[in-house]
Amino acid sequence: MFTALLFVNGEPPKNLPTDLGNYNYIACTDGAYHSYLSKSSIKPDFIIGDLDSINSTMTIPDKTQIIHTPDQSKTDFEKALLFLNSKGVTSFTIYGASGRSSDHFLGNLSVAMQYHQQFKMLFYDDYCHFFFATNHQIIHHVKYHIISLMPLSKVTGLTITGFEYPLHNQTLSLGSFTSLRNKAINDTVEISFSAGDLLIFVQN
């Protein structure tokens, strides 16, 4: 399984990852490179996007390939996922997907929802990490962390254990019941559900 570290153009991370050797590829959208990655020591393998943020005065590392993807029917985030998948990548660690413009964040979640059955995607920002849950999800090393469960479609048969407020066979849906700001009281928590698209946020 090929892995990629991907930077997109949301809120610039205060702390950039240092485990760069763990990835087959490092990539960014052109907006992320313009906004913050060009100011760091990280040299991406690919800069991907419609290139509206790249200008002739910007220094591009010799090793970096520019991938021009002008299709305006897809966001640069989606185009980056698909390009990297064409290189064999199915697992992504993603920075910069949240923050700044709220519609940008919701757009990134929409893209992630479209592909989360196909790709493994783990998102990081300065406050938490988040990901789409599998139907039976076990999370380790989270005692006393705040964990929120956000249904992006109707989630049925939800049971959670190891939390301050456990749930059994619960239904979650936007505009109705959700499970926000719960606390892990065990080092390992367990989440299972029958159907739906469930986003899990684990506070740092």
What does this structure look like?
- It is built from 3 helices and 14 strands.
- By secondary structure, it is of the alpha/beta class.
- It folds into 2 domains: 2-126, Thiamin pyrophosphokinase, catalytic domain (Rossmann fold), CATH 3.40.50.10240; 136-203, Jelly Rolls (Sandwich).
- It is elongated and about 55 Å long.
In total, the number of strands is 14
H and E string: EEHEEHEHEEEEEEEEE
Strand content: 35-45%
Mind telling me the CATH class of the largest domain? Alpha Beta
Q: Globular, elongated, flat, extended or rod-shaped: what is the shape?
A: elongated
Amino- and carboxy-terminal Cα gap: 27 Å
Distinct helical segment count? 3
Low-pLDDT regions: none
Count of all domains: 2
The pLDDT mean sits at 91
Helical residue percent?
10-25%
Biggest sheet record:
10 strands, mixed
Spatial strand sequence of the major β-sheet: 4-3-2-1-5-6-7-14-9-12
Structural class: alpha/beta
CATH-derived topology of the largest domain: Rossmann fold
Give the radius of gyration: 18 Å
Key features of this structure:
204 residues; alpha/beta; Rossmann fold; Jelly Rolls; 2 domains; ten-stranded mixed sheet; four-stranded antiparallel sheet; 3 helices; 15% helix; 36% strand; elongated
List the helices and strands and how they pair.
Blueprint: E1 2-7, E2 25-29, H1 30-35, E3 46-49, E4 65-68, H2 76-86, E5 89-95, H3 102-115, E6 120-124, E7 128-132, E8 136-139, E9 146-151, E10 155-161, E11 167-172, E12 179-183, E13 189-192, E14 198-203
Parallel strand pairs: 1-2, 1-5, 2-3, 3-4, 5-6
Antiparallel strand pairs: 6-7, 7-14, 8-13, 9-12, 9-14, 10-11, 10-13
